[in-house]
Write a structure and sequence with these properties.
The protein is an alpha+beta fold. The chain has 2 domains: about 5-90, Elongation Factor Tu (Ef-tu), domain 3; about 95-235, 2-Layer Sandwich (Threonyl-tRNA Synthetase, Chain A, domain 2). It is built from 3 helices and 15 strands. The chain has helices spanning about 95-115, 140-155, 165-170, and strands at about 5, 15-25, 30-35, 35, 50-55, 60-65, 70-75, 85-90, 115-120, 125-135, 160-165, 190-195, 200, 215-225, 230-235. A 6-stranded antiparallel beta sheet has the order 3-2-8-5-6-7. It has a 4-stranded antiparallel beta sheet with strand order 9-10-15-14, with helices on one face. The longest helix has 20 residues, at about 95-115.
Length: about 240
């Protein structure tokens, strides 16, 4: 499926704004741009919120989604969208995005501690979770708390690397989440690498540049979700 929008957040999640052109306004008022800093909902991470600003007006964006391969910026109800061909400035709500970047990176740290398959997950600004297929593995809440905060305090580098489809297919362990995999037609696969050997997995989300930026974490409730599945909740320390 052909992408019409340049996703500038892929290589730099710290960009807060970009200049763009409106290339479509759908029948529900959703706006498609030729490039964007807005991340669309996917992989357990919510889409960005923010604004699309014109010379004499501003449209507040309440959700960002994918539809038919496009990234669609969805205005809050009752707001007139910009017209086709308009030159605009797309600006994310940085505080909201940065919380999600910190939390998404934290879920990768959690995955690195628990050597089990991931059956689901959700990233939130206040609380995030990962569901694990434990098999015979036993979780210890205090151990998880101590280890995840150790990885934060040791301030590992977080970076993006790309590999070929052939390399990815030969290493199925790089897709940690059983139900979420890169698009089947993708020839280059994006990986997020933490440290030299802390964590490496396929992911299309946004992350901080170093684990120390996450800040102190608190491991919350561990919930029973079936004979083998356990849900681990994590919270930002503040």
């Amino acid at each position: 499926m052909t992408k019409r929008t340049l996703e500038v957040f892929r290589e730099n999640a710290y960009l807060r704004t970009c200049e763009a052109e409106v290339i479509e306004v759908n029948d529900r008022g959703g706006v498609v741009l030729d490039k964007t800093v807005f991340y669309a909902t996917g992989g357990g991470q919510p889409g960005d919120i923010g604004s699309i600003d014109l010379e004499n007006a501003s449209v507040s964006i309440g959700a960002t989604i994918r539809s038919g391969g496009d990234i669609v910026h969805v205005p809050f109800e009752g707001q007139p969208p910009p017209t086709l061909g308009s030159e605009v400035t797309a600006t994310i709500d940085w505080n909201h995005r940065h919380l999600l970047m910190r939390m998404h990176t934290a879920t990768h740290l959690l995955c690195s501690i628990v050597p089990c398959g991931v059956t689901g997950g959700s990233v939130g600004s206040a609380k995030s979770r990962i569901d694990f297929d434990l098999g015979g593995h036993v979780l210890d809440k205090q151990h998880l708390h101590d280890e995840i905060n150790r990885l934060v305090e040791e301030d590992y580098k977080v970076e993006t690397v790309w590999i070929s489809r052939e390399e990815f297919d030969a290493r199925p362990e790089l897709a940690r989440t059983m139900t979420v995999k890169p698009p089947a037609d993708a020839q280059s696969i994006r990986l997020v690498k933490i440290g030299d050997d802390v964590d490496l997995q396929s992911c299309g989300g946004t992350h901080v540049l170093r684990t120390g930026e996450i800040g102190r974490l608190r491991v919350g409730k561990i919930e029973n979700k079936g004979a083998r599945n356990r849900r681990v909740n994590i919270h930002l320390g503040e």
